[in-house]
Design brief:
It is a single chain. The protein is of the alpha/beta class and 308 residues long. The chain has 13 helices and eleven strands. The chain has helices at residues 12-27, 30-43, 48-60, 64-77, 85-91, 102-112, 116-124, 128-142, 161-166, 180-189, 200-205, 228-237, 268-277, and strands at 149-155, 170-177, 194-197, 212-217, 238-249, 256-258, 264-266, 281-287, 292-293, 296-297, 300-306. Strands 3-2-1-4-5-11-8 form a seven-stranded mixed beta sheet, with helices on both faces. A two-stranded antiparallel ribbon has the order 6-7. Strand 2 (170-177), helix 10 and strand 3 form a beta-alpha-beta unit. Helix 1 (12-27) packs antiparallel against helix 2, helix 2 packs antiparallel against helix 3 and helix 4 packs antiparallel against helix 5 (85-91). The chain starts with 11 loop residues before the first helix and ends with a strand. It binds S-adenosylmethionine.
Length: 308
């Protein structure tokens, strides 16, 4: 995972106490770390990183209400919520399920970019692009059509792993990602004709009707709570006969939940309903895991929806 985000309080003493608290936290002395964080907060009451870290420690200590209070303060101190305190509040049941803050996703992946491929591919056995490639091939071969596409859009393109998997079958690749650092890496691959630093929904909205034959989202819909708006916009942008292929994480219950990895998990029935509501046809929906966590596959889906 990326290094922990630190936003200075602007007060040297408070920042030092925060650093000591982090050392104690890493050594496992959580009560002493919490105590030092409170001292830092006394010096700098709007110290978002200290509040956020305190929330995590209180959560570990089983102090549910205290954790909620600290995460609420972390969120209030940084309106963009770069730490993702809102997500923690959702997971603790203290806030209704909603979208992630864009500043959080951007900060997370800007920090992650230099180590993204080694961490995801080598450490977590990431296989999202390969799953999408095989799924698209199987849908195209069932329809007796070649897996060749003039224009494709890669939503949440990251460093460009999906474009690499599809490179031989796509003429013109457009990549969209919230993180400028991930986009820099994608640009360096030379695989994309166009790259947009944008939220995927905004990126799709800026595209004309019927202008792409293939839309991909490899391990990106896990950062989107409500699939409907993105699937609907993808349906508008696809040409007749076009494909929207994506992976997501899943769970056995209903609707959408936040998983242990702080990503959304979408139930299979929820995904199917979002695809149908957008006027697309579900051509493939299979249980396939795109990555491991704690050496076990994270339950996931690979989905291909087609436009008539
Ligand atoms: C786990 S990475 C996967 C990257 C790439 N698709 C791959 O397969 O290697 C998720 C990417 O989605 C991007 N992302 C998450 N939410 C997004 C959103 N709402 N709009 C655009 N990009 C988003 C992140 O910045 C990150 O680069």
């Amino acid at each position: 995972m990326p290094a922990r985000l630190f936003l200075s309080s602007g007060d040297l003493m408070a920042d030092r106490r925060f650093e000591f608290a982090r050392d104690l936290q890493l050594k496992g002395d959580l009560p002493a770390a919490a105590d030092l964080l409170l001292q830092a907060i006394e010096l700098a009451p709007d110290f978002a990183s200290a509040w956020f870290t305190l929330g995590g420690i209180r959560e570990e200590l089983g102090e549910h209400e205290g954790a909620i209070a600290a995460f609420e303060r972390a969120q209030a101190c940084d309106p963009g919520d770069r730490h993702g305190a809102g997500l923690r509040l959702m997971r603790l049941g203290a806030a209704p399920l909603a979208g992630m803050s864009q500043a959080y996703v951007q900060t997370l992946f800007d920090q992650y970019a230099p180590r993204f491929e080694s961490s995801l591919v080598d450490d977590l056995g990431y296989r999202g692009p390969e799953l999408l490639f095989r799924a698209v091939l199987s849908v195209r071969s069932a329809a007796r059509k070649p897996a060749f596409f003039k224009r494709a859009i890669d939503l949440g393109c990251g460093t460009g792993l999906a474009a690499l998997a599809f490179a031989k079958g796509v003429d013109h690749f457009v990549g969209v990602d919230l993180s400028p650092r991930m986009i820099e890496r994608a640009r360096a691959t030379g695989l994309y004709a166009e790259l947009d630093v944008a939220d995927m929904l905004q990126g799709l909205r800026s595209r004309p009707d019927a202008s792409a034959e293939l839309i991909l989202a490899a391990d990106a819909m896990v950062y989107v709570a409500e699939l409907g708006p993105v699937v609907t916009e993808a349906a508008r942008v696809l040409t007749g006969g076009g494909l929207f292929a994506f992976t997501t994480e899943t769970h056995d219950g209903d609707g959408v939940v936040i998983g242990e990895g702080l990503r959304y998990a979408h139930a299979a029935a929820y995904v199917g309903a979002a695809v149908e509501a957008a006027g697309l046809k579900l051509a493939l929906l299979e249980d396939r895991s795109a990555r491991n966590e704690d050496n076990a596959p994270v339950p996931g889906l690979v989905v291909v929806a087609t436009k008539a």
